[in-house]
Structure formats: structure tokens, C-alpha cells
Automatic annotation (TrEMBL):
It comes from Celerinatantimonas yamalensis. Pathway: Amino-acid biosynthesis; L-arginine biosynthesis; L-arginine from L-ornithine and carbamoyl phosphate: step 1/3. It catalyses: carbamoyl phosphate + L-ornithine = L-citrulline + phosphate + H(+). Coiled coil: none annotated. InterPro entries: Asp/Orn_carbamoyltranf_P-bd (IPR006132), Asp/Orn_carbamoylTrfase (IPR006130), Asp/Orn_carbamoylTrfase_sf (IPR036901), Asp_carbamoyltransf_Asp/Orn-bd (IPR006131), Orn/put_carbamltrans (IPR002292), OTCase_ArgI (IPR024904). Keywords: Cytoplasm, Transferase. This is Ornithine carbamoyltransferase.
Length: 303
């Protein structure tokens, strides 16, 4: 494991190893308080962020390291300086590059020229750090991930892709239940199906909410992805049947609810559910930090 761009590049053992390390870091933070002493992590941001920025910054600090935040005030990546030169320069100073970018191609080019690990903290195709935190949160509530049935409901996107790929590797049953025209990328679905067959998992893609029957966990995300200027009101009618509410949970016997946030309350999820007893959404947000710290420690040589 030299970089983390997408979960499809990891083995089942590697994912479980990261999740186990994340669990240990969360349970005994003092044990890991000096693991990144003297090391610096650059966090590049082309997109706005709350959870990703804060959890990497504070997380690195808790491991004894130093996080350096770079936004676009010095010019967009690849414009003021080439991505190649970004990678080559940063590699001389830091131990890892964490990048939240618009295009997966930017990450691939960073990897091509960087001599330090590159971590995808979000791109147009994947969100692996989010998915690892999601699986950690599910594992806190279910003893065997391979027996968990996880359903994503809403607009198929980068989060959906990482849940499907990671869940397939872990042998889970993962469903993407999306309106017609909003399904996940067909090539990602093909890859997830391939991985599921190899690992005893199952991938379901449907536009019918009745496919939720028998699922343990339902997962929501915004109906309009970051960078899409479509007003929420314009898509409300199309997505309204897919809202996560108490009626849905009761009808289909859902046990727990996840949402990667930011959440638009009363649109894709009701406040009653988000703040209710079946919600593990804020545990999920906390676990971003622990899962990401586990990724960094898995990538960076440390004593």
C-alpha cells in the first residue's frame, strides 16, 4: 500500500487492518500520540470542507505530527504551477500529501511524480476515507461486516462508488437505490460486481425503494453534489420519495442510519431520524479522524 486513491486497490486484509488500527487509535489515543512526531502532512484543498479539513488537521496533531493546509489562494493546482512540480516540491518537505480535488486525474498525476504517499480525501469518482470511516462505524454496531446489508439511497456519486467497492471487498451486500438517471457509474458497478463475486459479497442497483427490505443500514447523502449549482428545490420532487424518514425505517426494518454530511435536513433526511436513536451519523463523523489516522500510519514509516 503506497498510496490510497481508491479502495478497489486494497485487499480485504488491508481494509480490515486499517479498520482494526482505527479502532485501536480511537480506544487508546495516548498509545499513538507520538507516532508522527517530526513528520508533516500537506493537505491540498480544491474544494471546501468541514469534516475532511478538521479531522485531518486535528488527527495529525493528535499523532504528534504537523498538518499544513493549502487552499487555492496561491493559485489553482496545475495553473500557477504544474501538478508535477507541486508533487516534486512537496515530496522534498513532507511525509504525505492528502488531496481533496475535483478530478481523479489530478490525484493520478500527483502519484506519478510524488515520492511520498498520496491520499485521496475526495475526488469526482471516489471518497475512500469516508467509506473507511463508514465501515468502522458499522463495525462498532455489528460483529461481522460480511453479514451486514448496507443500502445507499439517493444520488449515485463518489461516496456510493467507494461504499460499493469497499463493501464488495469486505464480502458485504451493498445496494445503490437511486432514481432513474442518477445511478452510480456503470464501470464502477461492473468492478464492484467483480469484486463481490470474488469475496462472497453482492451488489444491487435499483430505483425501487422496495429493494430496501431486509437491509440493516441505510445511508444518505445530499441530493445535489458539491459543485452542482442546481437548487435543491428543483430536484426535490424527483428525490422526495427517497427521503430517509422514520416511515422508511419502520416499513423496511432498518436498524441504523448513516449520512456523510453536510446534511440538508428535511430534504434527503429528516431531523427526527438524524437526531434519533437509530442514527450513528455523528459517530460516523468522529470516525473520519480515526480512520484517516489509521490510513496515514499505514502509509508512513514510523517507529
Amino acid at each position: 500500500m503506497n498510496h490510497l486513491l481508491t479502495l478497489q486497490d486494497l485487499s480485504r486484509e488491508q481494509i480490515l487492518g486499517i479498520l482494526d488500527l482505527a479502532k485501536n487509535i480511537k480506544a487508546d489515543p495516548a498509545r499513538y500520540a507520538t507516532t508522527l512526531t517530526g513528520k508533516s502532512i500537506v493537505t491540498l484543498f480544491e474544494k471546501p470542507s468541514l469534516r475532511t479539513r478538521v479531522t485531518f488537521d486535528i488527527g495529525v496533531n493528535r499523532l504528534g505530527g504537523h498538518a499544513v493546509y493549502l487552499d487555492q489562494q496561491n493559485g489553482a493546482i496545475g495553473n500557477r504551477e504544474s501538478i508535477k512540480d507541486y508533487a516534486k516540491n512537496l515530496s522534498r518537505w513532507c511525509e504525505a500529501i492528502v488531496a481533496r480535488v475535483y478530478s481523479h486525474k489530478t490525484l493520478q498525476e500527483l502519484c506519478r511524480y510524488a515520492s511520498v504517499p498520496v491520499v485521496n480525501s475526495l475526488c469526482d469518482l471516489y471518497h475512500p476515507c469516508q467509506a473507511l470511516a463508514d465501515f468502522q462505524t458499522i463495525a462498532e454496531n455489528y460483529s461481522d461486516l460480511s453479514q451486514v446489508k448496507l443500502a445507499y439511497v439517493g444520488d449515485g456519486n463518489n461516496v456510493t462508488h467507494s461504499l460499493m467497492l469497499g463493501g464488495a471487498i469486505l464480502g458485504m451486500e451493498v445496494a445503490a437505490i437511486c432514481p432513474m438517471g442518477s445511478s452510480p457509474d456503470a464501470q464502477v458497478v461492473l468492478k464492484a460486481n467483480e469484486l463481490a463475486k470474488a469475496n462472497g459479497g453482492k451488489i444491487v442497483v435499483s430505483d425501487s425503494l422496495d429493494a430496501l427490505a431486509g437491509y440493516d443500514v441505510v445511508y444518505g447523502d445530499t441530493w445535489v453534489s458539491m459543485g452542482d449549482d442546481t437548487p435543491l428545490e428543483q430536484v426535490k420532487e424527483r428525490f422526495a420519495p427517497y427521503q430517509i424518514n422514520q416511515q422508511m425505517l419502520d416499513r423496511y426494518g432498518i436498524g441504523h442510519v448513516l449520512h456523510c454530511q453536510p446534511a440538508h435536513r428535511e430534504f434527503e433526511i429528516t431531523s427526527a431520524v438524524m437526531d434519533g436513536p437509530q442514527s450513528i451519523i455523528f459517530d460516523q463523523a468522529e470516525n473520519r479522524m480515526h480512520a484517516q489516522n489509521a490510513v496515514l500510519l499505514s502509509l508512513i514509516q514510523h517507529d
